[in-house]
Specification:
With 173 residues, the chain is mainly alpha-helical. The chain has ten helices and two strands; from the N terminus they run αββααααααααα. Helix 4 packs across helix 6 and helix 8 packs antiparallel against helix 9. The longest helix has 15 residues.
Amino acid sequence: MLNQTFIDELKDYIDNALFSSDFICYSPASENILVYSPEIISQDIEDYIGNNRQPVLNQILFDLIDKRGLTDAQVYNRAGLDRKLFSKIRTNSSYKPKKNTLVSIAFALKLSEDEFDSFLETAGYSLSNSDTQDLIIKFFLKEKRYDVDELNEAFDRFIPKKQQGESPRVNNN
């Protein structure tokens, strides 16, 4: 059993060596228990978010459109998307389109593999090597083939109808 002298020495060691006194307080239940101050944890989280937050999807999308010198109409027409859906993506920064919608937009923009991965990641998506549809998309990107109709044809050919459930098509047509 630890004696009180040892416990006090350990508490002093922790206070002085491992934690800044600004970041700790003692539990109201026992002054021998160290806890993080809720205000400090909250500030740490806010700092982390502030230092690591990336631009939202619609910012990334419209920066890519501008960099390529395209108009919104050119992109949503190439992607086979409805103007209203595209407008929703533009105006609502919290809107999260379906993965297939983003794939069709990325193909319309002719994104490189790295750009494509970053673009999908911004919306919380990725491509998996264990999904046939994702492998087809990766192959098209590797080969720099950006025709959405050809992509849909490949889905129809390589993904059995019984596995498709909802159509894996990447546009609304």
